[in-house]
Amino acid sequence: MFGRGADRRATGTRQEARARRHLEAQGLKLVAANVACRQGEVDLVMRDGGTLVFVEVRYRAGTGYGGAAASVDRRKQRRLVAAAGYYLSRHPTDLPCRFDVVAIGADDRVQWIRHAFDGAP
């Protein structure tokens, strides 16, 4: 009745919650979740001490195509930067910002990649 789309959304929601728990265990604090605009979406916005962190959560059940971390390509990075810009336009801050990726792979291991990419154009 619901199909694969509903299954993927449920899996995504579970993996985002798992990534959030992992980051909170490392001392980060949740600021916002699922910040969306026309250009893209940021899964988690968190605070790491004096830094605002935009987090992309990627899950891959298989090992093909380079895995979860490799799926955050240039196109996806541009969409994340646009969504972060949208967030910052509504919630201005003087805090430094960074982009992290939490990759969860077929082996069920959580890999937190700090400073995964630069947000500059």
Residue share in helices? 25-40%
Mean pLDDT: 89
Coarse shape: globular
Indicate the structural class. alpha+beta
Q: Stretches where pLDDT falls below 50 for ≥5 residues?
A: none
Intertermini distance: 43 Å
Named CATH architecture: 3-Layer(aba) Sandwich
Strand order of the largest sheet: 1-2-3-4-5
What can you see in these coordinates?
- By secondary structure, the protein is an alpha+beta fold.
- The protein has a single domain (3-117), classed as Trna Endonuclease, Chain: A, domain 1 (3-Layer(aba) Sandwich), CATH 3.40.1350.10.
- It has 3 helices and 5 strands, in the order αβββααββ.
- It has helices at residues 3-25, 67-70, 74-90, and strands at residues 29-37, 40-48, 51-59, 97-104, 110-117.
- Strands 1-2-3-4-5 form a 5-stranded mixed β-sheet.
- A hairpin with a 2-residue loop joins strand 1 and strand 2 (40-48).
- The radius of gyration is 14 Å and the shape is globular.
- The mean pLDDT is 89.
Short description:
The protein is of the alpha+beta class.
SSE topology:
Layout: H1 3-25, E1 29-37, E2 40-48, E3 51-59, H2 67-70, H3 74-90, E4 97-104, E5 110-117
Parallel strand pairs: 3-4
Antiparallel strand pairs: 1-2, 2-3, 4-5
